[in-house]
Amino acid sequence: MLDKNGIAKRIAQEVEDGYYVNLGIGIPTLVANYVRDDISVEFQSENGILGMGPFPIDGEEDADLINAGKQTITALPGASYFDSATSFAMIRGKHVDLTILGAMEVAENGDIANWKIPGKMVKGMGGAMDLVASAENIIVAMMHTNREGESKLLKKCSLPLTGVGCVKKIVTNLAVLEVTKDGFLLLERAPGVSVEEIKAATEGNLIVKGEVLEMSI
Amino acid sequence: MIRKTVANVTDALAGVKDGMTFMLGGFGLCGIPENAISELVRLGVNDITCISNNAGVDDFGLGLLLQQHQIKKMISSYVGENDEFERQMLSGELEVELTPQGTLAEKCRAAQGGFPAFFTPAGYGTEVAEGKEVREFNGKMYILEEAFKADFAFVKAWKGDAAGNLIFKGTARNFNPCMCGAATITVAEVEELVPEGELDPNQIHIPGIFVQRIFQGKDYEKRIEQRTVRQK
């Protein structure tokens, strides 16, 4: 089974040379730590920077330089700043190659829910609805089950949707799955996790074809 | 040259009244019009609608207006980090309209550019789409979103000149340029108001035509919401 860093490490393998990547808050943010250093990648933060770098050295933080999580950051050589409409033009116009975000639920048809729990304080969708509606290459990073042990990979989302039919790939603590027209196709198992365990933790239709290899991370 | 300079924040906000709709730039606490917000608190205008990506924190940014119960309605994409906001929203005192962030930016830009509405895929199939026109283009579904209408836009820039030309800094740019010229009157406050001719026309982000009033801001706190650092 993978921990959060393990999930991030596996997703980092999906990042290719020349990609512009938008990372969501939480596990997706960790992906930046594991991208191969022999490829060129630029991270976009939707509040208005391309070429986002690591956190600043203590004492060098700048109130005018933050990421979408409102954390102080740095800008790498080649970085650029832009306004919010331009930022979402990059996203809506499919100029960003890969979007990695978290989710509360994903359905077997690719629907995603990650912004609202009825009865709880609603904080808002931020940029999530724009991202999922526009990106062609969306990877969801999440735990396979919630705190109550219930599956987060469902036949149908129970929570209010963020977007419909948009998720292509999911990396969880148990597996790598692809969303197909017939359901969740199991691509890889996490180290030490059996197909049966993944089946038991997946409420939506799980497709197992032939031998499913353990992921290498 | 057409001069846009006003003496101070009080002159800049002349004409602000109860019940108006305001656009306020900023993302989190980054790039917010601190002087305009303080003046709105001092003026005590009530029943206002605020279009702003976020709602500040309890004791800073738009949180200051919430404390005085001056805001009737917020139009935002994300409103966490504010307990007073949550209390007023749950008690029904405060109306909240949540809008996807890119849609929020584009509703400003549409108003700036004279478009009454636009189609976006964001929110299709979700509760955001309820009651909105849906149309298919090239096999993909889109919803119709209308441009904002606002009485004042309050923006914050790094540098500006008497002609109202603006230059922003870092990610403090965010929604500020999109809101310029998107309301009846745009008020720009700047950290540094420079003499005319000093800004290189090649470097200007927002031409002065989109700005009606500009003033030298003061006492900027520029509070950091999440101070994250690494060690050397």
Brief write-up:
The complex is a heterodimer of chains A (217) and B (232). Chain A is α/β, with parallel strands linked by helices.
Show the helix and strand layout:
The complex is a heterodimer of chains A (217) and B (232).
Chain A: H1 4-12, E1 20-23, H2 27-30, E2 42-45, E3 49-53, E4 74-81, H3 84-92, E5 98-101, E6 105-107, E7 112-113, H4 128-134, E8 138-141, E9 153-154, E10 169-171, E11 175-180, E12 183-189, H5 195-200, E13 206-207
Parallel strand pairs in A: 1-2, 1-5, 5-8, 6-9, 8-10, 12-13
Antiparallel strand pairs in A: 2-3, 3-4, 6-7, 10-11, 11-12
Chain B: H1 9-12, E1 21-24, H2 34-43, E2 48-51, H3 63-67, E3 71-76, H4 83-90, E4 95-98, H5 101-113, E5 117-120, E6 134-137, E7 140-146, E8 152-161, E9 166-167, H6 176-179, E10 185-194, E11 213-216
Number of strand elements of chain B: 11
Our Rg estimate of chain B from Cα atoms comes to: 18 Å
Helix proportion of chain B: 10-25%
Strand content of chain A: 15-25%
The oligomeric state of the chains shown is: heterodimer
Radius of gyration based on Cα positions of chain A: 17 Å
Biggest interface, chains and residue tallies: A-B, 54 and 58 residues
- Major sheet of chain A, described briefly? 10 strands, mixed
Task: List segments of chain B where confidence is low: pLDDT < 50 over at least 5 consecutive residues.
Answer: none
Q: Identify the overall geometry of chain B.
A: globular
According to DSSP, the number of beta strands of chain A is 13
Report the span from N to C terminus of chain A: 12 Å
Estimate percent helicity of chain A: 10-25%
The run of helices and strands of chain A is HEHEEEHEEEHEEEEEHE
Structural class of chain B: alpha/beta
The number of distinct helices of chain B, counting runs of at least 4 residues, comes to 6
